[in-house]
Design brief:
Layout (H helix, E strand, L loop, with lengths): L1 E6 L5 H10 L5 E5 L11 H16 L3 E6 L2 H15 L4 E3 L1 H11 L4 E6 L1 H6 L1 H9 L4 E6 L1 H8 L6 H16 L6 E4 L8 H8 L4 E4 L1 H12 L12 E5 L3 H12 L8 E3 L5
Parallel strand pairs: 1-2, 1-3, 2-9, 3-4, 5-6, 5-7, 7-8, 9-10
The structure holds D-glutamic acid.
Length: about 270
């Protein structure tokens, strides 16, 4: 059975990439709910409903594990999805992201960049403090980063100006954070520009690699030890051409639009 991966759009392909690298012989089915992106600016109630419909569509195909590769959906819908599909393992990206940040911070001061919905839910604060009770977590909503990444503007003057604006309060906070956690699927493709603005004192982490390790743990397989090539099915809820074009930046490999299946999620 395949590993199901779900995101509001193409951003979760950064997580899928890490998953496929760690589990090359596994089959994957990825669903991007592009018709309803962004989730990050929507109410928790809407995101819970959208995530439930998307997860239903994936689970109906028969899965060994479901990965919610969307920080916003992980922040507000994970407990409901876990309860709905038990005993199917359902994994979000917040706990792995928190683990990645806690593994590298020395001071325990962690800054999180995320969507409005994730910041509002306070989910990263909880996940980080569950691992390190004395951590100080500051979070900033960076909605324009999603639009820039979708546009393929992953670096340059405009991205750096936006990053400066978003990062300024975090960078001038005293005591300063030593880790910057990219708590949104879209942000890893902007990591170069964000690092440029953040400077050398901040270590930038995201949840892709730690999520892949967590899935390996759940499935009881050693990271990257397998051989062979598993299959990949891509599903989107809107314009497969755009999904393929924009998604290629996130997956870091070309996507054939003809190989992307358009599906409709009721409601
Ligand atoms: N996938 C979302 C997240 O990781 C970002 C894009 C959106 O707002 O839907 O939070």
């Amino acid at each position: 059975m395949a590993i199901g991966v779900f995101d509001s759009g193409v951003g979760g392909l950064t997580v899928l990439r890490a998953l496929r690298a760690a589990l090359p012989d596994r089959d994957f089915v990825y669903l991007g709910d592009t018709a309803r992106l962004p989730y990050g600016t929507k109410s928790a109630a809407s995101v819970v409903r959208y995530a439930g419909q998307a997860a239903d569509a994936l689970v109906a195909r028969g899965l060994s594990c479901l990965v919610i590769a969307c920080n916003t959906a992980s922040a507000v819908a994970l407990p409901a999805l876990r309860a709905r599909y038990a005993p199917l393992p359902v994994l979000g990206v917040l706990e792995p992201g928190a683990a990645a940040a806690c593994a590298v911070t020395r001071s325990g001061r962690i800054a999180v960049l995320a969507t409005e919905g994730t910041v509002r839910a306070g989910a990263y604060e909880r996940a980080i403090r569950a691992l390190r009770a004395d951590a100080t977590v500051t979070a900033a909503a960076c909605p324009l980063f999603v639009a820039l990444a979708e546009e393929g503007w992953t670096g340059g003057q405009v991205v750096e100006l936006v990053a400066q604006r978003y990062l300024e309060p975090l960078l001038t906070a005293r005591p300063a954070p030593d880790v910057l956690l990219l708590g949104c699927t879209h942000f890893p493709v902007l990591a170069g520009a964000i690092a440029q603005v953040a400077g050398a004192g901040l270590t930038i982490v995201d949840s892709a690699a730690t999520t892949a390790r967590a899935v390996c743990g759940i499935l009881g397989v050693a990271d990257g030890r397998a051989h062979g090539r598993g299959t990949l099915r891509l599903l989107a809820t809107d314009d497969v051409g755009r999904f393929a074009r924009v998604g290629a930046t996130f997956l870091r490999e070309p996507i054939d639009p003809a190989a992307v299946e358009l599906i409709d999620l009721a409601g």
